[in-house]
Amino acid sequence: MLSPVEIGVLGATGPAGTGIAARLAAIGHNVVAGSRERSRADAVVATLREKWDARVDGLRAGTNDDAAAAQDLVIVATTWEGAVDTAAAHASALAGKVVASMANGLEKVGHEFRPVLPEAGSLAEAVQAAAPAARVASAFHMIPAATFGNLDEEMDSDVVVCSDDDVARDLVIDLVSSIPNLGAFDGGSLANSVGLEAFTAVLLTVNLRHKGSATLRLAGVDRRSPR
Ligand SMILES: NC(=O)c1ccc[n+]([C@@H]2O[C@H](COP(=O)([O-])OP(=O)(O)OC[C@H]3O[C@@H](n4cnc5c(N)ncnc54)[C@H](OP(=O)(O)O)[C@@H]3O)[C@@H](O)[C@H]2O)c1
Question: Is the CB–ligand 1 distance for residue 107 below 6 Å?
Answer without folding.
Answer: no
